[in-house]
Amino acid sequence: MIYLDRVYQDGMVLQRQKPILFRGISDRAQSLTLRVEGQTVGTADVGEGRFELSFPPQEAAEDVTIGIGEVILRHVDIGEVWIGGGQSNMEFMLKFEEHGEEEVAAANDPHIRTYVVGQYSIEGERQDGFADWKAWDRWLPFTPEYAGDLPAPAIFFAQELRKQGVPVGILACNWGGTNAATWTDINLLEQDEELKVYIEDFDGIVAGIKDMDRYQMLNRISRMGTNMKTSSAPMDFIMKSTYHPDDLAKAMASFMSPDAVSNATNEEGKEQATAMGELPGGITPEEMMMIGPNDKNAPGRLYETMLQEIKGYTVRGVLWYQGESDVDHADIYDRLFSTMIGCWRRDWGEELPFLFVQLAPYGVWMMNTSEKYPMLRENQEKVAHTVPGVYMASISDIGNVYDIHPKQKKAVGHRLWLLAQKYIYGEPEVEADAPEAADVTVEQDQIRISFVNGQGLHMDEIDLTSYNGFPLERISEDLRPPVLAGVCGLQVWLDGVQLMDESSDVRCEVKQDQLVITAPKAAAAKEIRIAFARTGFYKVHIFNRAGLPVKPFEKLWTR
Q1: CATH of the domain at 496
Q2: Which of 121, 130, 182, 445 would you call most buried, defined as having the most Cβ atoms within 10 angstroms of its Cβ?
Q3: Domain around 242
């Protein structure tokens, strides 16, 4: 008898036109017959214990029956399969999207299917039922019953891909609040002198825990009783809408009070709470979020507990949206992300394409601040320029000053799809890349910036007196984006002196696919520095004809 790994189930989606990897355990050495719709397509010999076998490539099909020895898998689709990886902005559920209610109600395609890898951080959690959730470890069809709990960016991508007439599968392997180090083989981190800092940081935090027994107790309570997915009130409040920090802080304090934690445990984890005994008093919200040895961000942790669940599963590529939790080491994110990509490609045995999202603008959100985001975004772009088969989508027009989670996930999925069309599915004429600053020239008092992918460059008019529904007076001055002559996010220095928006003699306009800045003093300047979208929050409103926003950039021109 053979026992296939958990991901191989009825209703799964297999990748077309590539050899299909199956993994599992065999109770003895044996030869297995491989069948599609009852027809033999090959055989495979496996030994006792863990095995991998390769199923011959198949063309796209719907609801077929696959046979591997005595194992029968029914209602299997064959089409295009992508991994949807990252943290909360990839995990972001469709029901929380800007038009989530309508999208969920309209979900009616059973041949878009998603497998959500269970979010378990240590061995034994799955068996103990820690934070068990209805959508985990199952292949789910895109129907109203399930659609709301599925990852919005990947689902919107899948809907676009589905127009090609083939079934689409998404392997959702993500977890909010995670850094890229947890998704990387710890051995690779240990071998890199710069990336060792992730291990050193984590070990230092764990060493500082004074009462390990109390930590383990609190960690168990947190995982079994107050998981955000089963305690819907805080998740709904945080994700559905955007709030001013003052309002958000007050609401979260009520959700995280000892009484609220106790109530959540009693109501939603009653059986587990009874087994553990009464929740001890004196627990603070900070303790409930304490970082310790069981944490999801332990270096290499989710690589072992989650990625291994789907390791080698035959896919077309990876969709990635992550980086928010790596701001503390923004200066080496390019090195970390490149290492993680190499790690996954090693494990899959091929140069998997990676399509990823550059982090959106934002100001502050809960305990998160955005001072280091410009550096992280820069290093994200560096990966796209230096690692073959990696492509970046820009979403610099949809950020939110008081929310780390842009709600317009349809735009995210669409822009990832444009990249897939051009670079993966062989449609080179598709305009998939955002405008990128190239040359700077100075002609008398005009500074001209030209762009790669800048065809049809145009500037939309926007309201600069409020952002995301918050008037300027409700946005602290340090979070307000720079504005120069009506262009949000633009800063210019002439010989070290910044041009200010109050200067009536400065003009900005788009001409012949160039951004033209007219400033009388530019004619005599020996050094001109231009920064665009190089702050934590901004709103890009300059686009190419494909509707893609200009990427953040910084340029220096000298005579």
Answers
A1: 2.60.40
A2: 182
A3: 210-288
Q: Which residue has the higher pLDDT, 286 or 205?
A: 205
330 closest CA partner among 483, 228, 197, 445: 197
CA distances from 457 to 85, 512, 548 (A): 32, 8, 10
Question: Are 105 and 170 part of one and the same domain?
Answer: yes
Q: How far apart are CA 487 and CA 383, in angstroms?
A: 28
Q: Based on the fold, state whether residues 279 and 324 are members of the same structural domain.
A: no
Q: Domain count for the chain, please give it.
A: 3
**Residue 236 included in any domain:** yes
Same domain, 355 and 442: no
CB 2 within 8 A of CB 67: no
- Regarding whether 147 and 105 lie in a shared domain, the answer is yes
Question: Confidence class of residue 367 from pLDDT cuts 50, 70 and 90?
Answer: confident
Is 28 inside a domain boundary? no
Q: pLDDT grade, residue 232 (50/70/90)?
A: low
- The pLDDT of residue 91 is 97
Predicted confidence band at 288 (pLDDT cuts at 50, 70, 90)? confident
Predicted confidence (pLDDT) per residue in 293-307, tens digit: 999 999 999 999 999
Q: Which two tokens stand for residue 58?
A: 């198949």
Residues 331, 415, single domain; the answer is yes
Under the phi-then-psi rule, with left for phi > 0, alpha for psi from -120 to 50, and beta for the rest, what region is 371?
Answer: alpha
Q: Is 349 exposed, middle or buried (0-12, 13-18, 19+ CB in 10 A)?
A: exposed
pLDDT at 231 over 90: no
Q: Are residues 479 and 523 in the same domain?
A: yes
Residue 31 is assigned to a structural domain of this protein:
no
Give the DSSP H/E element, type plus range, for residue 383: helix 373-386
Tokens coding 89: 């902005």
Q: Are residues 236 and 182 part of one domain?
A: no
Please give the torsion angle defined by the CA atoms of residues 416, 421, 423 and 424, in that order, rounded to the nearest 10 degrees.
100
Q: Is 315 exposed, middle or buried (0-12, 13-18, 19+ CB in 10 A)?
A: buried
pLDDT at 275: 34
What dihedral angle (degrees, nearest 10) is formed by the CA atoms of 256, 260, 265, 270?
-170
Longest Cα–Cα distance of the chain, Å, equals 83
Taking a C-beta distance cutoff of 8 angstroms, is the pair 155, 412 a contact?
Answer: no
Q: Among 83-92, 126-135, 391-400, 478-487, which is the least confidently predicted range?
A: 126-135
Residue-level pLDDT at 192? 98
User: What distance in Å separates the CA atoms of residue 176 and residue 463, rounded to the nearest whole number?
Assistant: 32
- Choosing from 402, 423, 444, the residue where a domain stops is 423
